[in-house]
Design goal:
This protein is mainly α and 204 residues long. The protein is built from 7 helices and no strands.
């Protein structure tokens, strides 16, 4: 059996934190939300979704640390070797911290676009074709999530101090178009049903 290593300890601590935060998410109470939206998903639902993903990744991390432990520190050639070994997670945390910092300035949508594109470009290939794929993937994933939360679920996402007007314009126009299309289908649907029923009755 492999000896206890630093990654195993970190994985166990992360899993304990995920368990603690999951437990506390059930205690989130917002009387205003319950009054405005009775019977809807509680405010702790989405945090638990995220924590579930973190828990799964924490378990994978734990199993990897047991099956394939990291090399001893003396084989990493000091601080430089340690940085090379953990370079990707270090940059991921740094970019995520920058993402949280710019949300109040650029808002959720633009900050998310910058975050995902930067992360993909840092971790993945950097040739011209890859950059195009990164752009398309970023627009599809971040734009799709923004559309689901902002328009379909009507979640009030953070707006930026510099981009507040743009965020509001986008919200009104994009979600307004979707709402108009939905109302159109809602009005056309019964009319088509009545028309088809009338035609069917005449033919018979």
């Amino acid at each position: 059996m492999n000896r206890l290593n630093r990654d195993t300890i970190i994985a166990v601590i992360l899993l304990l934190l995920v368990g603690f935060f999951t437990y506390t998410s059930f205690a989130i109470k917002t009387p205003v939300f319950e009054k405005l939206a009775p019977g809807q998903m509680g405010p702790g639902f989405w945090p638990r979704i995220i924590l579930t993903g973190l828990g799964i990744m924490g378990l994978i991390y734990l199993f990897q640390s047991i099956i394939s432990p990291p090399p001893p520190a003396e084989k990493r050639r000091g601080l430089v070797g340690w940085y090379r070994h953990y370079k990707n997670p270090i940059w991921c945390f740094a970019i995520f911290a920058a993402f949280l910092t710019i949300i109040p300035v650029l808002g959720m949508l633009l900050s998310g676009l910058v975050f995902v594109f930067t992360l993909m470009s840092m971790l993945g290939p950097k040739d011209g074709a890859a950059i195009k794929r990164h752009i398309l993937t970023t627009l599809g994933t971040v734009g799709g999530m923004w559309f689901i939360f902002a328009c379909l679920l009507e979640v009030q996402l953070p707006k930026g101090s510099l981009t507040g007007a743009f965020d509001e314009w986008l919200l009104v126009n994009v979600c307004g178009i979707v709402s108009s299309i939905g109302e159109l289908f809602a009005n056309v649907g019964p009319s088509c049903s009545i028309l088809l029923a009338s035609v069917w009755g005449v033919e018979r």
